[in-house]
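Need the bound structure for iron/sulfur cluster, inputs here:
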Amino acid sequence: MTDTMPLEVLTLEVLTLEVLRYRPEIENEPKFQTYTVPYRDDWVVLDALNHVKDHVDATLSYRWSCHMAVCGSCGMMINGEPKLACHAFLRDYRHGVIRVEPLDHFPIERDLVIVMDRFMEKLASVKPYAIAKAEKPLEEGEYLQTPLQLMAFKQYTQCINCLLCYAACPQCGLNDNFVGPAALALAHRYNLDSRDTGKDERADVVASNEGIWECTFVGACSEVCPKHVDPAAAIQQTKISASLDWFKARLWPGAHP
Ligand code: SF4
Ligand code: SF4
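Answer from helper R.:
Posting the output first, comments after.
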């Protein structure tokens, strides 16, 4: 099915978007729909989708919010690669059709909107927050850190939960129970935080077969991350730390790892 092109675009250079549509109330399975959009040098794929939504087909569904690679909402497959739609310029796809699909390895809720429930469960399972053995009384002041202590985990705080890494990870495609790169990187972030004492509480999930040991270190997660987080490194570092803890527990039974 093709759209009707607004009059004002007829004189401009145009591009073709092939967008995967799925409206479960009227369709049994997803299928592609083609839209023609104006080409502009400064437009990203999200602008093209917004053009479709505003001028051509208001029924098209997708998530977005900030338009500046901060909210993590507009992750989708663009010509087969996981990308933020607000970070993918039309000029990089100028000489061909742009195929837009929901992120791989997630069920489709509707059109480009994926179901995130399983990811939210995995995220919660690693307890992604600072756990203190005992709260300090307020009068003792804040929990201070040195710049070096901050540097140990800072890159992992940049994660925006865009889920591009789950779409890129082959293990996420093979095993829906794999905790996955972003959640494991976030667990590592808190394990490295000098204010946190929750490593043991996270270990059952993090150091399980469906945690770090499911990762085969392909590294695709780190390659696609738009925030330069390195989940593959986090997972490999966690493997080393978990192995050391395992040996310590056997050499000094009863000792705290
Ligand atoms: S390094 Fe591990 S988590 Fe990252 S893509 Fe490869 S298998 Fe997935
Ligand atoms: S680690 Fe990177 S790719 Fe993965 S969810 Fe976080 S920001 Fe997105």
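Comments: The mean pLDDT is 93. Residues 2-114 form a domain with the Ubiquitin-like (UB roll) fold (CATH 3.10.20.30).
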